[in-house]
């Protein structure tokens, strides 16, 4: 196959981004050519592959952040509203004794119970925590991407006739490899944080079931 056609096909594949909200898939690698004529094109393909890896991760976190944000805000507003109702009901029943004489004080307990349930849902499913984690992870990956892009531009400025030497290409390939590994590490770090939070939520949920009642002697 013609090297130019092969590299062109690789560029077409790199334009395909992961569907927002879907799983992050590794890029498909293909044969590249590192002779003097095709070295620059091949290096651009590797750079684009590394760049797309970060962009796909950023897009994933931006998309996932929206659902967690909406869920967290709904639960938090519900908690605040239920707690406010629980605090206002006794006062309103005292102020408007004639109009609210039939209002049972038990509704205060119901409102507090609703607030507690909403808090437990947020705690167990980690909506608020996930929202914050996704914001932090996206920011860290974006920061690393900006640094990587600037490093590539700086390296390009050193190329004679806009063509890299063999040593310069090797150095940039090592930088691309390090950047991809950096992005993977940031994703793994966020995933590990989620695992710890989820395991802690499971332990807290199981504590009441494991507690043994104290029998009177």
Describe the fold and architecture:
Helix content is 76%, strand content 0%. With 217 residues, it is mostly helical. It has one domain. It is rod-shaped. About 4% of the residues have low confidence.
Which features does this protein show?
76% helix, 217 residues, mainly alpha
Q: What is the radius of gyration? A: 28 Å
Q: Biggest sheet, in brief? A: none
**Number of DSSP helices?**
5
Low-pLDDT stretches:
9-17
State the gist of this model:
With 217 residues, this protein is an all-alpha fold. The chain is 76% helix and 0% strand. The chain has five helices and no strands.
Topology:
Blueprint: H1 3-14, H2 39-95, H3 106-125, H4 127-157, H5 166-210
